Amino acid sequence: MKLPFPKIILPLLLSACASFQPRPISAEKTCADFNARTLDHSGLQGFLAEQKASDGSWTVDRLALAAAYFHPDVALARAEAEEVAAAIQTAGQRPNPVFTFGPQFASNHVNPITPWFMAGALSIPIETAGKRARRTEQALAAAEAARWRVSSRAWAARSRVRTAMLELHGARENIRLLETEQKLHDEAIRKLTAQMDAGDVSPFELTQARLMLNRTRLALQDAQRLAATGEAKLAVAIGVPLNALRAVNLDFAEFHRLPEPGNSRRRALTQRADLMVLLAEYAAAESALRLEIARQYPDLRLSPGYDYNQGQNRWQLGLNLELPFNRNAGAIAQAEAKRKTAEARFLAQQSAIQGELDIALAAYQASRAKAATAATLAQEASDASGTTRRMVEAGQVSALELTRRQIEASTANVALMTANIEAQSAAGSLEDAMQATLR
């Protein structure tokens, strides 16, 4: 008797198998690829077109999309999501049947037909109680959690971009204002020197003016340092080399206004990405519990068989059934405990978000009030400077007094800029708490 399995069935099964495709990684190549990145990259432009942001200046939102495309943290989250999603196919697969072929030879046979006993059996597993559906539900929930992790990482990337861009904007504004103030201090020192030579002022006044100039110079150097590091931080936050960032014009218009906080509390407490991750993980824990409850019902295993024994064809039909004495009680209890932990984790995060929102909102409102006060003081200093200019033109006060008023106005403008940057930083914290932009 010739069995077709070894010559026909086995090659057919093997022909459907996947083959290994090598994908070596070269540190030199990946480094070169990173250094070649630009914000005109064709892949990025396609991604921006999908997000309906292909045109426009490089604002925070557009640079945040570039970070979502380039930054390794987001790329890692996408790879992890694809890995988890691949488990859906595994969860939905039916278990393979097992074929057993066991020929035997009888050396002391008395039947002259053949000394060989040909035996073959097939074991067919049959899952019961919807276990495959429960596994698929669990895998789908895990994949949903992984997709929300991508959104959470993308928002974290946006937050880093906004923080770095605000730091760069604040440094550049500070440089502009401090350069003006330094010129005013230089002018005041020239006038004081002339008056001291004429005996009109004491050396103490000139010394005080020089100390103020030195403080301004040091502050200007700090601002220049922050501007240099701010560019580097922004490039790192996006995931591109510094040269790629310097090749484009940045749009800081978003930082010129302080929008109303709005009412996004409900959205933050129900739709924040990290909260949705925990909600999906809770769904996965519930599916895992359903699966363990289903596993208390044993699976069946049908075992039809055949053997050829000294001229006789014999057929068998076996049935294997695990006796469920423990009713899978331990695994069910463990799955119930994991579901309870997932629920507690979700509630704890929701409560933490509530507190984060309250703190961020209070800080933003206080910072806006401070910025409004600083704007009033800056306007008053500007008005005083204008009044002094008119008095100088009328010959009522000296030109030195005008320079002093202009220095006061410049200092007030620096304080206003600092207050606005603080308020913008508080706005960023509020956006992070809501995971939504203020408009």
- Here the CATH topology of the domain at 84-155 and 259-434 equals Outer membrane efflux proteins (OEP)
Estimated structural class: alpha+beta
Number of helices: 12
Percentage of residues in strands: 5-15%
DSSP strand count? 5
Q: Briefly, what CATH class of the domain at 84-155 and 259-434? A: Mainly Alpha
Describe the structure.
The chain has a domain at 84-155 and 259-434: Outer membrane efflux proteins (OEP), CATH 1.20.1600. The protein contains twelve helices and five strands. It has helices spanning 5-15, 27-35, 42-50, 60-70, 72-92, 131-197, 203-238, 242-246, 265-271, 273-294, 329-393, 399-434; strands at residues 98-101, 104-105, 116-126, 300-309, 312-321. Strands 1, 2, 3, 4 and 5 form a five-stranded antiparallel beta sheet that branches. Helix 4 (60-70) packs across helix 6 (131-197) and helix 11 packs antiparallel against helix 12 (399-434). The chain is elongated and about 140 Å long.
List keywords for this structure.
Outer membrane efflux proteins (OEP); 12 helices; 5 strands; 68% helix; disordered N terminus
Short description:
The protein contains twelve helices and five strands. By secondary structure, the chain is an alpha+beta fold. The protein has a domain at 84-155 and 259-434: Up-down Bundle (Outer membrane efflux proteins (OEP)), CATH 1.20.1600.
